[in-house]
Amino acid sequence: MRIFRLSLLLLGAVQVSVSTEISVSLDDRRFFLPSAYLNKLYFISRATFASFGLARATCESARGYVAEIDNLVELIFLENFLTRSDVAKVYVAGTDAAFDGRWVSQRTGATRNVFDWSDGEPNNFNGQEECIELIKSRQSRMNDIVCNNPLERPNVLCEIDLF
Question: Secretion signal: which residues (predicted)?
Answer without folding.
Answer: 1-19
